[in-house]
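FAQ
Q: What does a multi-component entry look like?
A: The components come first, one per line:
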Amino acid sequence: MDRQRLIQQIKSKNSYLCVGLDTDHAKIPVHLQSRPDAIIAFNKAIIDATKDHCVSYKINTAFYEAMGLKGWAAMEETVHYIPDTHFKIADAKRGDIGNTSTQYAKAFFETLPFDAITVAPYMGSDSVRPFLEYADKWTIVLGLTSNTGAKDFELQKTGDEYLYEKVLRTVAGWGNPANLMFVVGATQASAFENIRRILPEHFFLVPGVGAQGGSLKDISEKAMNADCGLLVNASRAVIYASEKEDFAEEAGAIARQYQFEMGQYL
Amino acid sequence: MDRQRLIQQIKSKNSYLCVGLDTDHAKIPVHLQSRPDAIIAFNKAIIDATKDHCVSYKINTAFYEAMGLKGWAAMEETVHYIPDTHFKIADAKRGDIGNTSTQYAKAFFETLPFDAITVAPYMGSDSVRPFLEYADKWTIVLGLTSNTGAKDFELQKTGDEYLYEKVLRTVAGWGNPANLMFVVGATQASAFENIRRILPEHFFLVPGVGAQGGSLKDISEKAMNADCGLLVNASRAVIYASEKEDFAEEAGAIARQYQFEMGQYL
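Then the predicted structure of the entire assembly, as tokens:
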């Protein structure tokens, strides 16, 4: 999906919500757990109930890998089930030397039909560039993350700037605002104005709203640009809105609330 | 596998060789490519031919993910085929917020029987700690890697030290030399004495010998400690030693050469 189409989706839906499919067998409603197709049945119901309120889905690969082969199969079936109108993110945090990153890019952009993958920057340019070589695909590089561990390295000074600022500036030079986004955690609201100054045009993928406590209002006021420039992810707050038979309906209701609130900021 | 057993394996075999199973369908011998079980047939033949000369196998997950579901199945079958005497590394470069890293740990330490996983440090403590909670399992954190991109961030100064030095010192405090190793690329030989001073006791996983040009002699002279403290990985140089029907025999011969050379340094 190219940048123009993504922006068009956001404008037509009045939403920049990404729903995170961090699907954990132990957390889905009990009435589904005994089904052999529990994960995919849950995901399909969530997608059906939320697709009118979001523009993107983010599949957290860890939750599927934890289930082994049947988990990988459920991930494949899920990404194929997501409508073509929606921006499909593999939240995989990959990154390795060039010839290996080329294989990860193949895994998520060719073998699987994702539009984007999250990538860790530590290993530098040749670990990121193979992902950028695909037309109309996106590389979403970790900038400043939402977790407490962000202080250990991301918020350490390298010269006059924080490491995460160096990452944003350096990695931005390897791509452009039509093939590169950055992860900026919603819990880092105080840094958002600075980050938007560094990167006025790029989209940010913003996890950390909901279960992790970030404020949608804060982020939207501080970091939205003329093209929106934000994909705000909610995972647990949406998909586990209810643990009963009404789980999909409740997930849809939460997604609709986010969409309504986002409509105010757009 | 605990540290004592790993050291015992190294001493009994006179080898600290890790064979990297970066198995790429396009690079395996032509006579195998048309077989439906091409990848697993290749891996089994390589393991049979090399197991007397190495103490460890490293499965590069990217190459298996690139093949989709059948690739993940081949990875599962391969890790189960590796003898229990050998240290099994998932070279996966994972790392995410705590609840997600917990899922990755489950994927590779519970669902699959790996002894170790490689982890990227960028997101800090809570992205690494879930892996450290498993008894007799190992977390191998990226320190200074073998690729050209290492200069972009790893070799940037944070205060008085390089970022990679801060990573080594900081992460070392989260575990101990019996559950934590670091990746240090063989092409970084000039830094090895310094790294060994920072971490006198830890094991280093050293990729970059062979196709990437690192010198086994240099590394061994500069970084070996009383317990050996090294696992040196060769992937392409061993597994693609021949593209003909004698591929396994030739892989075994190269592995035996490494073992012989390692015997001189031990």
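Q: Is there any commentary attached?
A: Sometimes. For this entry: Chain A has one domain: 3-265.
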